[in-house]
Structure formats: C-alpha cells, structure tokens
Amino acid sequence: MQNVNLSSFFSGASFDFNMLAAALVLVLGIWRGRRDLGQRAALGVLATVVGIFFVSYFAFMLVFQPSLMGVVTVPILSVVNMIGSFVPLYVAANWVEVILRNTR
Predict the structure, then answer these.
(1) CA-CA distance, 52 to 45, in Å (whole number)?
(2) Helix, strand, or coil here: 79?
(3) Domain limits of the chain?
(4) pTM
C-alpha cells in the first residue's frame, strides 16, 4: 500500500465545525438549566464524529485496494467524507431540538 497521511480525518473545517457543534449543544444545555441533556448531546455528537471517522477509514481502506485503483476511487471517497462531515452536525441539530423542547 502507498504511504498515505491519515491525519486529514481528524483535521480540517468539518472536524472544527463538529467540535464547535458539540461545544455549543453543551453550552445550550447548561444555559437552559439541563446540564444532563447538554452533556449527553455533546457526547452523542463526539461519538458520531468517532463513528464517522471509522466509516471513512474503512471506506478509505476498501477504495484504495490495489485491485480497485482507478478513476472512480477518489470521487467515492470524497462523497463518503462529505456525507460523513454532515452527520454530526445533523445529530447536534436534533439535540438542540430535544433540549429546547424539554426546557420550555
């Protein structure tokens, strides 16, 4: 296998936005008086980030097998990473809705 730098999975704008989303749902939970919900939300977003990392990593390993090398591999990996970058933000948005519903 080629020498590949995997540090891009835990860096970049998507990772920063996902960490910001986790911190903001935690702050929202604390601000609305439900620290427990904020903590569960932040941990849920962080767990989603880690889960997406493993999905992206395994997709990366499958796509870059010597028998599958070709023009299609880079777009497939790009689509997987793009979808994976969105999922933790979606989880954070759902948690915001849960926190706001429970603190009315």
Answers:
(1) 10
(2) helix
(3) 8-102
(4) 0.78
